[in-house]
Write a structure and sequence with these properties.
Elements: E1 3-5, E2 21-27, E3 30-35, H1 45-59, E4 66-71, E5 76-78, H2 86-98, E6 102-107, E7 110-111, H3 113-121, E8 124-127, H4 131-143
Parallel strand pairs: 1-2, 3-4, 4-6, 5-7, 6-8
Antiparallel strand pairs: 2-3
């Protein structure tokens, strides 16, 4: 599945073809990345490569202020990580932690080991039915001056 919405904002690099992600650039300062790898959002080589690419885009995007990570699966936020991919997954998360944006984990459903690590890498996390609240916080952060 490849889903992307640029809404006329941000670098065209955000419109790459994604396999396990949906990317929605809601404004110049705000982006939402949705994990969509049925059935359980397991983290495999493709997921790690795509998250690494997202982190590279974050690192080079001067307009971006906040990025929200959520899940298309209401029962599973993010599942387990393929053990062979663990070093690369952790490297991507360390880079996310250091990135010059506010990262938010919008968690719905259970989390596997990869989900727990992503939540810890994000500055903020919200759980359960908080979509409107997460969007409000993200938009406030996106409107702030760097």
């Amino acid at each position: 599945m490849s889903t992307f919405s640029l809404n006329g904002r941000g670098s065209p690099a955000w419109s790459d073809t994604w396999t396990h992600l949906q990317v929605d650039r809601r404004s110049p300062g705000h982006c939402r990345v949705t994990f969509d790898h049925p059935p359980d959002n397991a983290v495999d080589a493709t997921t790690v490569a795509e998250v690494t690419e997202i982190v590279e885009l974050i690192e080079s995007d001067d307009e971006l202020r906040v990025i929200v990570f959520d899940s298309a699966n209401r029962d599973v936020y993010l599942g387990e990580c393929d053990p062979a991919e663990l070093p690369a997954w952790r490297d991507a998360l360390v880079r996310l932690e250091r990135a010059p944006v506010v990262s938010i984990a919008s968690v719905r459903g259970r989390t596997g080991s990869a989900g727990e690590e992503l939540v810890r890498a994000c500055e903020l996390s919200f759980a359960d039915r908080l979509d409107a609240e997460v969007d409000e916080v993200a938009e406030q952060i996106a409107r702030t001056e760097g």
